[in-house]
Amino acid sequence: MEKAMHQSHGCGFAEYERDLEKRLEIEKNREKEYKKGLEVAASANKNNLM
Fold first, then answer.
1. DSSP state of 10
2. C-alpha to C-alpha distances, 11 to 30, 31, 32, nearest whole angstrom
3. pTM of the model
């Protein structure tokens, strides 16, 4: 999990837990990526139905 945090967000889990601003920034980015993924999945499903 530590390696994944560094690769994805550029910080370790300990820093994520300590730094509130860093945590908020990471969670905001996660939310954007999640919504983008939903849009891509919806688009793919729409294209498969046609």
1. S
2. 14, 18, 19
3. 0.78
Q: What is the DSSP letter of 12?
A: -
Cα distances from 29 to residues 6, 10, 42, in angstroms, run 14, 12, 20
Amino acid occupying residue 45: N
Residues 29/9, Cβ–Cβ less than 8 Å: yes
CA-CA distance, 20 to 23, in Å (whole number)? 5
| pLDDT, tens digit, 9 for 90 and up, residues 26-50 | 999 999 999 999 999 999 888 877 6
